[in-house]
Design a protein that fits this description.
Elements lengths: L5 E10 L12 E12 L2 E7 H7 L4 E12 L1 E7 L13 H14 L4 H17 L2 E7 L4 H14 L3 E4 L1 E2 L12 H15 L5 E7 L7 H13 L4 E6 L3 H10 L6 H7 L7 E5 L5 H10 L2 E4 L1 H6 L7 H6 L5 E2 L11 H13 L7 H16 L16 E4 L5 H7 L5 H11 L5 E6 L2 E2 L6 E4 L6 E2 L2
Parallel strand pairs: 1-4, 5-6, 6-7, 7-9, 8-9, 9-10, 10-11, 11-12, 12-13
Antiparallel strand pairs: 1-2, 2-3, 4-14, 4-17, 14-15, 15-16, 17-18
Helix pairs in contact: 3-4, 4-5, 5-6, 12-15, 13-15, 14-15
This protein binds guanine and zinc ion (ZN).
Zinc ion binds next to strand 5.
Length: 449
């Protein structure tokens, strides 16, 4: 009988702080012949292989050498009902929403469709190495149930919420202040804190919510201060102008959300590109988190996220795909495009900082770093196994790589789903275990699968 305890062998990389430079070795732990001991979904021990195996001779050994083990990736902004409109041509934000996105999301009134798409959605996330998603569901309560049910089956730590939207959207895609409030309450009672799930109160953005609905969103936040809050902010210039027409009392776009009491360190603000100085100060004061969505911002021609400018004010930025305006499920490809957006502004996204961002950095932005985002003992065993030579182009480039940072940069620029050799969710292998697995009872090395 194979043991329940898994010993994962490979090169281990985990972060303990945000790297300050390309050679900031104090920011991370890197173990060349390392091992993680995993039991009941949790990491019990981390160390060199010889240290860990001495403590756990009964464990099932899974040999991932020469691959690299990191914490599972965290995607902090993604739209689950947009999986079938990714790569829809030609429009900027408001036209894209009206032409493709809103008609597509009306299909999620059908719970069978929502469940089928939730299954495909999480398959895609896992295949790309993402073990935690922060998702917008559609306006329909059933779409949020489908999202949480599928995540529960897979034992994934997820955040999500049904969108609140009661205007400027087609029939079949609007709630009312009362129904949106009631449905959100019901979903919070059902899912928030159940297993690994968290609820996010989700007013879609100012344009699709009346002031009456924003007030109910504010009431939900007051009544459930431990829920997350997510919305969109200053993604596109026409969006900003229209928002200010709809909310003439607001000092600026962020003030719409601020005046209804939505801002705190539990709030995630997708895009946050075209910000006024007052908005930046308010983000810094409240601890609300801007979310950089590189592939989406390029795809919709939205603009360039000012990572360094916000960070200089002490703001904690998250990073995300924003599927379906985003064009890749891969957080590695998200880093690739993020690198280029920052290059255009003479800012640097060096490889240690990049890998920190999609793991511990995003966990810190969510306040969940005691649970996910690292390979620290006591945290949940969400782990990805990365093959730096997964494609011919990567293998050829890797022949000349001489440092960990260089290898990480190859992964950051060239990696995608082909790079993800295995994924563990709460300690369970998701991709069929290509690695060599054996037990070491009494020192014998017997192949068991
Ligand atoms: N703003 C409001 N809704 C959306 C959406 O679905 N995607 C993006 N990129 N921006 C939005
Ligand atoms: Zn979005």
């Amino acid at each position: 009988m194979p043991s329940d305890r898994l010993l994962l062998r490979g090169r281990i990389l985990t972060f303990q702080s945000e790297p300050q430079s390309v050679d900031d070795t104090s920011s991370h732990v890197y173990i060349k012949d390392g091992a993680l001991l995993v039991e009941n979904g949790v990491i019990l021990a981390r160390g060199t292989y010889s240290e860990v195996v001495a403590e756990a001779r009964d464990a099932q050994i899974v040999d991932h050498r020469p691959h690299l083990l990191t914490a599972g990736f965290i995607d902090t902004h993604i739209h689950f009902p947009q999986v079938q409109i990714i790569a829809s041509w030609g429009a900027q934000l408001l036209d894209w929403l009206n032409t493709y996105t809103f008609p597509e999301e009306t299909r999620f009134a059908d719970e069978g469709h929502a469940s089928a798409m939730a299954c495909r959605f999480f398959d895609l996330l896992i295949n790309h190495g993402t073990t935690t998603s922060v998702a917008y569901c559609s306006v329909h309560k059933g779409s949020a149930n489908a999202y949480f049910e599928e995540a529960e089956q897979r034992n994934m730590r997820v955040i999500g919420g049904k969108v609140l939207m009661d205007r400027n959207a087609p029939d079949g895609l609007r709630d009312t202040p009362q129904s949106g409030y009631d449905d959100s309450k019901e979903l919070i009672a059902k899912w928030h804190g159940k297993g690994r799930a968290h609820y996010a109160i989700t007013p879609r953005f100012a344009i699709t919510s009346t002031p009456e609905q924003m007030a109910t969103a504010g009431a939900l936040v007051t009544e459930h201060p431990d829920c997350f809050v997510q919305t969109h902010l200053s993604e596109n210039r026409n969006e900003i102008a229209y928002t200010l027409e709809l909310y003439p009392e607001a000092r600026d776009y962020l003030d719409v959300y601020q005046s209804y009491g939505l801002l705190s360190d539990k709030m995630l603000l997708g895009h946050s590109i075209h910000l006024e100085p007052r908005e930046i100060d308010a983000l810094a004061e409240t601890g609300a988190r801007p979310v950089f969505c590189p592939t989406s911002n390029l795809f919709l021609g939205s603009g360039l996220f000012d990572d360094a400018g916000l960070k200089a004010k002490g703001i904690v930025n998250a990073i995300a795909t924003d599927i379906g305006a985003g064009t890749s499920y891969s957080m590695l490809q998200t880093l690739n495009e993020g690198y280029k957006i920052l290059q255009l502004q003479d800012q640097k996204l060096h490889p240690l900082q990049a890998f920190h961002w999609i793991t511990r950095g995003n966990a810190v932005a969510l306040g969940l770093e005691d649970k996910i985002g690292t390979l620290d003992p006591g945290t949940e065993a969400d782990i990805v196994v990365l093959n730096s030579r997964a494609t011919d182009a990567m293998a050829l480039r890797m022949e000349r790589a001489t440092s960990l940072s260089e290898e990480l940069f190859v992964l950051q620029m060239l990696g995608d789903d082909r790079t993800i050799d295995e994924v563990y969710v709460a300690g369970r292998a998701q991709k069929g275990g290509k690695a060599l697995s054996y037990s070491m009872q009494e020192g014998a090395r017997a192949l068991v699968s």
